[in-house]
Amino acid sequence: xxxxxxxxxxxxxxxxxxxxxxxxxxAILILAHVIGSSIxxxxxxxxxxxxxxxxxxxxxxxxxxxxxxxxxxxxxxxxISPDEREVPVKQxxxxxxxxxxxxxxxxxxxxxVIFLEDRSNKESTFYLTSPLGRVKxxxxxxxGVGYDRPPTAKDKNAFESEKQYWLDLLAPKPPx
Length: 176
Known about the structure:
By secondary structure, this protein is of the alpha+beta class. It is 40% helix and 27% strand.
């Protein structure tokens, strides 16, 4: 029985081919791991577009806020609960002539709701935002009937004002 040796390996040709195939598989696995790791690293290393003070306000609300419920019809109109179910939230609220609230969904911390409730006019406005701090959706309720709509320029200005109110309260800027 004759065996052919591959040049320089000291192994018979079939064994050298198996070794070469194994090396290729190992090289492919290593390359896939390196590429996957570098992609994951580049994604996690990219700067977050989340607003730092908003992130602080969210964390504070989740740790110190009161347990509350976002009503089914509001959560549905905001798009948080497609099944029209109550959504457990953590909440800070200010009660006065107008009730103001800042809420974070317990299940999905990216769902941030800021609301105003004017009981004398039986009118409420709910703003859905995310860690990016831009208003995504507005729900207006008049006499118990809710209407969702894309945010108008007026909505965006009112939202920015309310967001600033909550940021100043929950995540004040450090003194200079």
